[in-house]
Write a structure and sequence with these properties.
This protein is an all-alpha fold. The chain contains 4 helices and no strands. It has one domain. Helix 1 crosses helix 2.
């Protein structure tokens, strides 16, 4: 049975400096390859690197654009949550302040003490993550 496979290479001639030819012959001998195969491998490697550099120049702006788009979307979601949270917190603060002010026995000094104490508590609580909220945080990160 005869093989019908055709030769996968074509003849290609180039002119190089004698030192380049000598180096290819030395490398070929060390690798136990023909100078032609060594030169072909070097040329293929050079073309692959060149293609990679060209594609990197094309893909980098596309990747940066996609990342920027996702960051904007994420920032918008977070900003919306922050605005809602701040609005509700300020609304609740005003309601609580007014309710406390109307309580019997709560004078201005006592009201100021309560408000100052709540400020200290708020500062302390901001620095820690509530264990009950920890499972919710990853879910918020994946909101779309």
């Amino acid at each position: 049975m005869q093989s019908t496979a055709k030769r996968q290479t074509v003849h290609f001639t180039i002119h190089v400096k004698p030192a380049v030819k000598a180096e290819f012959q030395r490398i070929a001998q060390a690798e136990k390859l023909t100078p032609s195969r060594t030169a072909a491998a070097a040329l293929e490697d050079w073309l692959a690197r060149r293609s990679h550099i060209q594609h990197a120049g094309i893909f980098q702006p596309m990747i940066e654009h996609a990342i920027a788009k996702e960051i904007r979307a994420y920032s918008s979601r977070i900003a919306g949550l922050e605005v809602r949270s701040l609005f509700l917190a300020e609304q609740i603060r005003a309601i609580v302040y007014n309710l406390l002010r109307e309580q019997p026995g709560v004078v201005e000094a006592k009201l100021n003490d309560i408000m100052d104490g709540s400020l200290d508590n708020a500062k302390r609580n901001i620095k820690r993550i509530d264990p009950e909220l920890a499972p919710i945080l990853p879910q918020i990160e994946h909101w779309r």
